[in-house]
Amino acid sequence: MTPAKVNRGQILVADPFMDEPVFKRAAIFLCEHNKEGSLGFVINKQLEFKIQDLVLDFPDFDAHVYYGGPVSTDTIHYVHTKGDILDDSIQIDPGIFWGGDFSRLKFLIKNGLITPKDIRFYLGYSGWSPHQLLSEINTGSWIVTDLDLNYIFAKRWTGLWNKILADAGGSKAVISKMDDTHFNLN
Prior knowledge:
The chain has six helices and ten strands; from the N terminus they run E-E-E-E-H-E-E-E-E-H-E-H-E-H-H-H. By secondary structure, it is α+β, with helices and mostly antiparallel strands.
């Protein structure tokens, strides 16, 4: 077996047989992958509340929060396309950024310079210790695919797991056509 290769800016798609409820049919945008470990956000599990429901004094903003992962679920993270105007943003891939100055973010939103189509908020994150992610990929828990900005900023998040696999082609496209009933082994 060829050792796994993964880079920040890629998408991790949960293997269809993954039985871990937190990651069942999850798609994760990988924002960090280095010798200290890996970090990403589940991009296809929208929560029932908006950002102003979680953060006091946040401007009225029509943006839902997504479940980023099981680590530090008392923290808010954000991925956006506005790194040119949001100070301290980290560029992950051309045109996509992570984080930035939170006070500046609120100012930009209040003044209409960042709109809901430009940003996604995440409660918590998904994290792996050094070498853990590569081990999980090598054992088949994750399928690594390339990023399409539409995956992160799609208006419709349901069916995203299927779409990412279909776009990857080959045997992954075949898997994408199966719904959960195809994987029920009981």
